[in-house]
Amino acid sequence: LVNVDSILRSVIQTLHPLAAARHVNLRLEGMEEDSEVLGDQDQLTQVFTNLVENAIKYGPENGEVSICITAHSNEPTLRGPAVRIDIADQGEGIAAHHIPRLTERFYRVDSHRSREMGGTGLGLAIVKHILNRHRGRLRIESHAGNGSCFSVILPYN
Ligand code: ATP
Ligand code: MG
């Protein structure tokens, strides 16, 4: 049993230097006591590290990344109570035709930002793999020019 809340706090600490370098404000919202899920602490830490790192890298300098927990989310896709974590940035967004392919290994949107930022294109493939093992889901909502929101949905405890 792991506490999503405390995982997110530690991820924010770990990524603080990267956020500070880009003058990005990390905002954590919706903290609740009972955001516990059945899962592996290190693997879930990896999931949120990859997603928040992307939000910082692909969002604008001086921007804001919001991380919002909803503890008793009713998610039809999971058929039962769930914890949902939304990670939203103010970046250039992702065109619709790229979205289904983002979790493929080595897939990168060929924007100049992806190229200049470095990385291998494995982050989201790892996220998907770990979430599958937790019976979780990744939902991606984005509109080119309008920021992105990556939602992690995990079965509640
Ligand atoms: P790595 O995570 O291995 O360092 P990466 O960030 O390029 O490299 P992924 O995390 O798998 O790889 O992301 C794949 C691609 O999806 C990125 O290259 C980028 O084009 C796009 N992407 C991911 N997150 C965002 C985001 N928040 N906003 C815009 N584009 C994104
Ligand atoms: Mg990445």
From TrEMBL:
Protein's cellular compartments: Cell membrane
Domain Histidine kinase positions: 1-157
Coiled-coil parts of chain: none
Superkingdom of the source species: Bacteria
Listed name of the protein: histidine kinase
Gene source species: Pacificibacter maritimus
Residues of the full protein shown: 199 to 355 of 355
